[in-house]
Design brief:
Length: about 240
């Protein structure tokens, strides 16, 4: 198989896929006749070939995907003018603490925030696939240890936590929240070419802030722009 045909096969698979595809899965396209290094080289060639287009090929935590370029987001948003989901500041601060201090227990989060964390906040973050329990601390009660997921990285459009900016005030939640906002504001690409729907988490007590169900059901499971009070906080890249 020549290089042009191999790239065309990779391109087609990635454009049609609803999820990022890792190199090990892309090798299946060629019955493992092409090695991982060869696949990566072909993907880099495809990246270069798409540099002048409105869609780009990127590598995220769970694999490779095509997505719209950040500078075109304002135009694509006009196709979906619905009001975006809104999350409480408590939810955003909890997410920032987990992202920058993981693995952490609920008690750790409460010590940092200085207030009790509503269990619905953690449930929502888990239901959205952004955080998960990765173990338990060997202490009294064996509290659960929370960490962010690969889906969280995908939704930010990054490959690893190392790509999050360093917080200037790493010892406080406000500094972590600001740094996380910086990271997500800089990674607004999302809008993958193939999409999959997801469902919003329930919030019967309204503890997590107002949720726009119509807007969320039209999204693909990505983190979206949020609002705290009257101030909109661009916390995530949109995939709608």
């Amino acid at each position: 198989m020549n290089t042009a045909d191999a790239k065309r096969i990779l391109e087609t698979a990635l454009v049609c896929s609803q999820q990022p595809l890792p190199v090990r899965e892309l090798r299946v396209l060629f019955n493992d006749e092409l090695g991982a290094d060869t696949i990566k080289s072909l993907l880099q060639d495809l990246q270069n070939e798409w540099t002048q287009r409105g869609v780009e090929l990127v590598s995220v935590a769970t694999g490779w995907r095509f997505q719209s370029r950040p500078e075109l987001r304002e135009y694509l948003d006009r196709l979906h003018p619905e009001k975006p989901p809104r999350y409480s500041r408590a939810t955003l601060e909890t997410l920032a603490i987990i992202a920058y201090r993981q693995p952490v227990t609920r008690g750790d989060m409460e010590d940092i925030r200085g207030v009790t964390i509503n269990s619905l906040i953690l449930k929502q973050l888990e239901d959205r696939g952004w955080v998960e329990v990765i173990g338990h601390r060997e202490t009294v009660g064996r509290p659960a240890l929370f960490a962010t997921t690969r889906q969280f990285l995908d939704d930010l459009g990054i490959e690893s936590l190392d790509q999050l900016p360093v917080s200037d005030a790493a010892t406080g939640q406000s500094g972590m929240l600001a740094a996380l906002n910086m990271a997500t504001d800089a990674s607004q690409p999302a809008l993958p070419m193939a999409q999959a729907e997801d469902s919003p988490a329930s919030d019967p007590d309204g503890a997590l802030g107002t949720h726009d169900v119509a807007s969320e059901s039209a999204s693909t499971g990505s983190l979206t722009d949020t609002a705290v009070g009257d101030e909109t906080t661009p916390l995530y890249g949109t995939q709608a």
